[in-house]
Design brief:
Elements: H1 2-36, E1 46-52, H2 59-75, E2 79-84, H3 95-101, E3 106-109, H4 134-143, H5 146-157, E4 162-170, E5 176-178, H6 185-188, E6 192-194, H7 198-205, E7 209-211, H8 218-224, E8 229-230, H9 235-241, E9 249-252, E10 260-267, H10 268-272, H11 276-310, E11 314-317, H12 320-337, H13 341-364, H14 368-376
Parallel strand pairs: 1-2, 1-3, 6-7, 6-8, 9-11
Antiparallel strand pairs: 3-10, 4-10, 5-8, 5-9
Length: 379
């Protein structure tokens, strides 16, 4: 009886083993095919419309392209971002609204463009000049509680259907382009001047007549006399946009936007509907593009500044009385806007981070100006 029972069980065990073996073999073949033939049908590709807030000729749009290329390469045909320049679907200042509504799936811009909805938005892009740099702002966002505050503003306070991250540390922005250089705040008060975000509050505090507009509209406005002076961002963007055709005095150094970072956003429902690995690609590609951008501008900005000076543009260092007036104006702007509890919470968090890291760097790092002057300054 025992032997018969054993004999009956053997074929059954053999059958189960064979079935498992065949299933495993099929999986192996499928895996090998997937490795050997990574092509995915066009119907399986998720395509997202992704618009920048920058003209196609601007290096900022190129930075958006760099991000898109990383996403598309890493997604290997499962996900594709279709990049469009500003104005393709909506104007630069309407991009967030379009992503929120679903008219666009995502976009590349700056938080300062949304400060009309809540002035705290600009803190996540053009924060006050606490002596810190753009990479310090990114560090605060990812490791100092900034991202949680960003989500609180976007999703809880404003109820926006967006998800996003900061990326791309920018160096100091120049005071801007002028018909002739300015030496005093009194001279600036006579001018119609373009800037955005909290810098608009700052300049208004100094008595400057401020106009807010997107990057692609600035040079035509200066050409028509709508603006007397303007800032945008950097020598590469300014050169591409044609500032040198409408002004020749380029005022360098400023505290109105000591540093800035880009923002990448997606429609939250569309983003959350993606598989987790594609969500991860969208997020981590922003970090990779951020690092690449910080290296790229070190090549491009000095080269394009040289090209501008060769084309007849004259550079001037912004006088210290104007710089000090900007810092004094920051005190007043921060105090006034801190009447809003959320604004105060964000700016106090940033001040604590900046105080900590700038204090550390001051103690820790050797004086760069001393080393530079030793090797390169004319003697």
């Amino acid at each position: 009886m025992t032997d018969q029972r054993k004999n009956k069980q053997k074929p059954k065990a053999s059958k189960i083993t064979r079935r498992k073996f065949l299933a495993g073999a099929a999986a192996s073949v499928g895996g090998a095919a997937a490795v050997g033939f990574p092509m995915i049908s066009k119907a399986e590709t998720v395509t997202l419309r992704f618009q920048s807030t920058w003209p196609a000729k601007d290096i900022f749009h190129e930075y958006a392209q760099d991000y898109v290329r990383r996403v598309n390469e890493m997604a290997e045909g499962r996900l594709r971002l279709d990049l469009l320049p500003a104005g393709a679907v909506v104007g630069a200042l309407q991009m967030q609204d379009a992503v929120n509504s679903g008219a666009l799936d995502g976009g590349h811009g700056v938080c300062a463009y949304w400060y009309g909805k809540n002035k705290a938005y600009s803190l996540f892009g053009t924060a006050p000049s606490f002596g810190w740099e753009a990479n310090d702002l990114l560090a605060w966002f990812y490791y100092g509680g900034g991202e949680a505050l960003y989500k609180e503003l976007s999703n809880d306070i404003l109820k926006l259907n967006v998800v996003g991250w900061l990326t791309g540390p920018m160096p100091t922005q120049p005071l801007g382009w002028f018909k002739k250089p300015v030496q005093t705040v009194a001279e600036m008060r006579k001018l119609k001047y373009r800037t955005v975000g909290l810098a608009a509050d700052l300049m208004k505090e100094m008595g400057v007549n401020v106009t807010i507009m997107g990057g692609g509209d600035i040079v035509p406005a200066m050409d028509r006399g709508v603006l007397d002076a303007a800032e945008f961002n950097n020598p590469s963007s300014d050169k591409a946009l044609g500032f040198q055709d409408v002004a020749k005095a380029y005022m360098l150094q400023s505290f109105h936007q000591r540093m800035e970072c880009f923002e990448i956003i997606f429609n939250k429902k569309k983003y959350e509907g993606l598989p987790k690995d594609l969500q991860a690609i969208l997020r981590y590609a922003s970090e990779a593009a951020s690092a690449d951008m910080s290296w790229k501008w070190e090549k491009r900005y000095p080269d394009d500044l040289d090209a501008l000076t060769k084309a007849g543009v004259k550079t001037y260092v912004t006088p210290k009385p104007i710089l000090q007036a900007q810092l004094d104006a920051w005190d007043k702007v921060i105090a006034r806007l801190s009447a809003d509890p959320f604004f105060k919470k964000v700016v106090e968090s940033q001040k604590a981070w900046a105080h900590r890291i700038v204090e550390f760097k001051t103690k820790w790092e050797g004086p760069n100006d001393m080393a530079y002057n030793h090797f390169f300054a004319k003697r």
